[in-house]
């Protein structure tokens, strides 16, 4: 899969089988899937959801959505706070409509937690950073 590093935005090619090995960016050498949210396509989501051995936290959002934009810093803060315990990804529901439909996204922002490919919980609506971290602490 080709994925942009969330830290320096360099494109990295990562073999699907290496996803669970905590790969690092070829340019900045920081973990690609830890410490910051990663924007993903439907294909990338499918691979991550299948390969990861720790929780996958998903923010379904859109660029035009005010609450989504307001929630983005809380999501980024949680990604940093829970680095190494979960992978945080963002799905742009306008760009990935088929994925949004398959996930049954009816409003945004919608937050989901997956473990080993299975949805564990979902929450519609933005939360404060503290509320979001408390909500996630039940899973890690």
UniProtKB/TrEMBL annotation:
The protein's UniProt keywords, in alphabetical order, are:
Disulfide bond, Electron transport, Metal-binding, Redox-active center, Transport
Q: Which PROSITE patterns match?
A: THIOREDOXIN_1 (PS00194), THIOREDOXIN_2 (PS51352)
What is an example of a Pfam family matching this protein? Zn_ribbon_Thio2
Spell out the Gene3D superfamilies in the cross-references: Glutaredoxin, Zn-finger domain of Sec23/24
Occurrences of domain Thioredoxin (ranges) = 36-140
From what superkingdom does this record's organism come? Bacteria
* Signal sequence segment: none
Q: Does the keyword Electron transport apply?
A: yes
According to the record, the segments passing through the membrane are none
Xref: SUPFAM superfamilies: Thioredoxin-like
Which protein family is it in?
A: Belongs to the thioredoxin family.
According to UniProt, the name of this protein is: Thioredoxin
Q: Which organism is it from?
A: Silvimonas amylolytica
Primary gene name = trxC
